[in-house]
Amino acid sequence: MTGMDRPPAYDIHPGNVTDKVIASFTMKTAREKQLLASLVSHLHGFARENRLTHEEWAKAVGFLFRCGEISNEKRDEFMLLSDVLGLSSFVDMTDAPEGATEGSVLGPFYASDSPERPVGADLRPGGEGEPVLVRGRVLDAAGKPISGAMIDMWQTAENGLYATQDEALPDQAFRCKMRCDDAAGFSFVTVMPGPYKVPDDGPVGDLLHAGGRTAWRPAHFHFMILAPGHRALTTEIFFEGDPYLGTDAVFGVRKSLIVAPQEERGQKLVDLTFRLVPAALSDAA
Amino acid sequence: MTGMDRPPAYDIHPGNVTDKVIASFTMKTAREKQLLASLVSHLHGFARENRLTHEEWAKAVGFLFRCGEISNEKRDEFMLLSDVLGLSSFVDMTDAPEGATEGSVLGPFYASDSPERPVGADLRPGGEGEPVLVRGRVLDAAGKPISGAMIDMWQTAENGLYATQDEALPDQAFRCKMRCDDAAGFSFVTVMPGPYKVPDDGPVGDLLHAGGRTAWRPAHFHFMILAPGHRALTTEIFFEGDPYLGTDAVFGVRKSLIVAPQEERGQKLVDLTFRLVPAALSDAA
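Output (structure tokens, whole complex):
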């Protein structure tokens, strides 16, 4: 068939529209073309397999519109949607290098402006709340300390609110950046975080409620670990016995990320080891 | 396996997470459950088949966030996204009853407050512009006029702008509701609409540009046809020779919806026949 007698694009029926839409995109790279083609195939496949009605389609488009309406600089309903549908966790698990600590959801509460604090810092405003010592090290795949590692951590207070959400707290409480010491060690004093509900007053909350699901997340520390020459790690640390471990609204819990706090000289202690892999290796994994 | 020794939900890996997410939704109806399960399968399938990276996933979530940012009461970027990905047309075609005039995209410019005008009305403000007489009838599947039929039509002016977009035009120009006469006939005088670009200054426009696609749509009349006891029809009428017929940005053109304007007593004439099917039949189709 030559270009001259190629059927015009308006000769469209359910059997050829998916191919025509895919063909309409050129895209600059093979990867972009692949992603677009796959996206269109899955979207149309979803409509085809379910014989999606106009009414259902309009509801779905309206749902996304409402997600947009409730989103703002501090709230990303689309990220939350990805989280509660397990897509974020799926990508966390599949785009993960062998040999590194398992990753977990970044979540919507990361703030990049956390203050840098020295090793040993107390993150509790006014030193209030039952202290817990968190200490750990950042190792490479061979178990050697990584020089120049840096942590960026954030957590809720005991009431389940992040400082960025709670007007009663200084904005920079319970979060910090910290350069590890020469042995790639870090430590800080904080409180145990509390469990909390993901924002459930928007369309994603409506979906959770309609689905008979809980909006609760188990308590956790968030960590982002950065080190020169190594692949960055975003993960979470959960606690044994937390009643929400099995029903995390965003599917972030991994067995290897659950720890049991210990006691040392009468103080609660959480001991952590993070493993990073070289940046180059991660692409092959 | 009993409930007691069912593995906890945090025993999650890429091989079981899709099923766990699906199982987490109960939903009230079997249809809702089916749609959710299919949606989750396709979303995860998209990520799995393409080995979606974190960076790509974050771009996709950010794309939807930007769609929300640019949307407002007068602009629905999610509807536009559905349109340019051919999803709207797919549903138009597959959720369509046998025997009726083919449907086509509603588009984002429908305004439900068009004034009711009598048969024969002139929709041109001040009677300006080259007149074209549009007339037609609304028939049932057997070819009989449907009593009580009503049309709701909207189109651009010759410059490709809808009256709702163009401050130089009265807000209600080139659109109307009209009760058909006893023979289910309607007619009005208007101008030929112009081709136009879908809004391409937002994320969907970025996608069109990145894909080497055009944002242009061929010129068209929009019609919504309503009649008691019959399934409502939303469709578009296109014109032979329009240079954009083959590359409509939203895949709305159907061969059966392209007409060739005629001449009658020195005036342009567009003669249309719309066919509706009974509301009850449409569910079985």
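The radius of gyration of chain B is 23 Å.
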